[in-house]
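Could you help me review a protein record that somebody else here produced? This is what I was given.
***
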Amino acid sequence: MADKCGPLVHLWGIDVASQLPPASATAEELTPLLKAMFTEAVPFIETLPAAAERGDGSSPWKAKGSKTFSRSAAPVELYERTVSAAPLAAAVEDHKPPGIDAKHVGSEMWAARRSVHENAAAAGTASWTEWTRCFKDEHAEAEKEFTATVVSTTRHRQWDLAGLELAIAGTTWTDWTLKYEESVHKLPAPLRRRVFPPGRRAATADPAACSLAMVQRQRSVPPESLAGRGQKDSSFSDVLVVKQQPTTSLPASAGTTPSGQQQPAAKDSRVLARADALARMTVELNLRTVGAQAERLERELKELVMRTGQDKEFRKAHEERLTDAWREIVAVKAQMESVRGRQDDIQTDFERCQRETAELRQLLRREVSGLRDLIDSMASQLDSLPTAADMDEECLLRNAQENCTGETVPSGKRIIAQAPASTRGRKNCASRPLGRRIQEAISSTRRWHRDHKSTALPDAEFIANYLKQQSKRDPAMAVLIQKAIQKRLQYGRRPRASSRPRSLDEFCRDVTWNDVIETVEVVLIKDKDVAERMLSK
């Protein structure tokens, strides 16, 4: 029989965010989802063969014998069914469930259990009321009570479906229950706990048939919801139909939960239940681990083959370029070795260049100093030369003297002729404007100040040379500066400042160059008007 699959009752589950309505959704809004679930689940479980049809091969379910349990009076018939990957992939292509890729869908193995129980609240069986409470109304609480490995249950969402009636395949279903709950199962070490967040949908058929159907769907928990909880998500789906006439329980399940029947967690059966669950789960986990490793190795092998092929093509196309690049690398390494060997020679040459540069700077400094001295000497000589007006005046005096009666007084001609020569410097300075004379004195002092920074002469000798040069250039200006320096020394009450010096050298012995600079600033710059009055006398 060809399998025809729907999009809901499978291991890939239902996306809570996109396929489950919010808790405030009405019964009308939930009707399409419930009808689709029951339309897919009920026919799926009803393909289980009756007792007389087990061997004819018309059913996709295969009988696997039966099993008995000490706490149950009814034997449990076991069946298995494998849904191939092709119809599952077709269902994904047709219905497009969110987050599911048809290329990654594999086959599903379903395990079915069927048992017939007496309708009585007695040991080894259960009444209809107990079945309703444990599998419909309080399924999570009953699962924790009957299953020793259940650590906790959490209800995330519940919908109000009061008064909802749905007609599905000729049967009217009422008393609907829809819950979204989470169950945490503990496993023996070193396995971590597994979380099952199932959405439970249950309904009761009309009183004439007096039957109860339940659909339980499981979707893998998003990994981010398990962060920091030390738990692992799990996938599980089952369909359960409980009918009162005939009294039959037909549960069918698929996923990672073993097919052993749940028993009350009594003290005498707790160890046996744990051992049985551990053995079955260990085998199943090992099989699934081996399968996952085989798939991973297959993917890695394909990727390796693909990359190896790409490497060969790349090397074939770029082998020559790689060879040239390698040769250049080797050449650069060899050159670097030779450069490292010449580091000491480079350092020696650098130090020699530094010494030669320092010597050149000293020589240049001496040359510049000598050049300054020559320029100052030339400037002083130019300042002492008479002007054109002085030359004209001297010529007029000579002509006038020649016209005089020089023969009666010969000595007078000599005295008159010599008089302009002795007073020539004083007349030359007196003929220039006072402002120009003051500015020339300031400029000359600035030149001497620059020379003072590099001279090796003591201040006394340097100041004496300065005053001598000023007296040659402008005697009156030299006298004015010297008198101002003398007053400064007297006001400062320096030793020997009160006595009159007998020579210029003795005068300069108590003077510093800083005194000269400050005196020139006060007399010629700050008190310029006073200096002009004194020079004009």
Remarks:
- The CA atoms of residues 26 and 160 lie 7 Å apart.
- Residues 434-536 form one domain.
- Confidence is low (pLDDT under 50) at residues 206-228, 247-268, 404-425.
